[in-house]
Specification:
The chain has 172 residues and is of the alpha/beta class. 22% of the residues lie in helices and 23% in strands. The protein is flat.
Length: 172
């Protein structure tokens, strides 16, 4: 384990028994990763990677993280929210932005997801990834359109959540 004051990257592999489908059945990657992050200390985690794999053992890897600059590839969707990340309106802003761009959900099957957050260095960004994923109904699809924040997120087979560039707000 890394020293308790060191920022880390976490990689979680969820090994499912042979014959168990990787998607469907409520095996949401964020539900596996979130308790691990809480145990490690979510504020220490600057990058999280998780995978679902068939017929392999589950495992966790933790390593020091080096800050990286913005990646060369362009994001497919950028959302600038204007309300608290703890409010239902925050999820609604993400949901509406996805709906405006996507139109129809991705075709059935596994999905790889990358989420990058740019937040204040005082913000615990790890509390944002679950609600952000919950807002992706327009992209992932939803079983019940009356529940816009219950997407088919169990189809995410690989995900990366990264606090890429922490913004340092001036103190006044």
């Amino acid at each position: 384990m890394q020293p308790p004051d060191e920022n880390v990257a976490v990689e979680l592999t969820v090994g499912l028994p042979a014959g168990v489908p990787l998607i469907g059945g409520g095996r949401d990657l964020d539900n596996y990763l979130f308790p691990v992050a809480r145990r490690i200390g979510a504020a220490r985690i600057h990058a999280a990677f998780d995978y679902k794999r068939a017929a392999v053992p589950s495992g966790i890897a933790i390593s020091p993280v080096a800050r990286e600059s913005d990646p060369p590839d362009e994001p497919r969707l950028t959302v600038h929210t204007t309300v608290s990340g703890q409010s239902p309106a925050w999820k609604q802003q993400i949901h509406d932005a996805c709906d405006a761009v996507v139109g129809t959900p991705l075709l059935a099957g596994p999905v790889a997801l990358v989420i990058r957050f740019k937040v204040s260095s005082r913000r615990n960004w790890s509390t944002l990834w679950k609600p952000a994923i919950d807002a992706l109904g327009p992209v992932l699809g939803a079983l019940d359109p009356r529940k816009p924040f219950s997407p088919n997120d169990d189809r995410i087979s690989t995900s990366r959540c990264i606090a890429l560039s922490m913004i340092r707000w001036p103190t006044t």
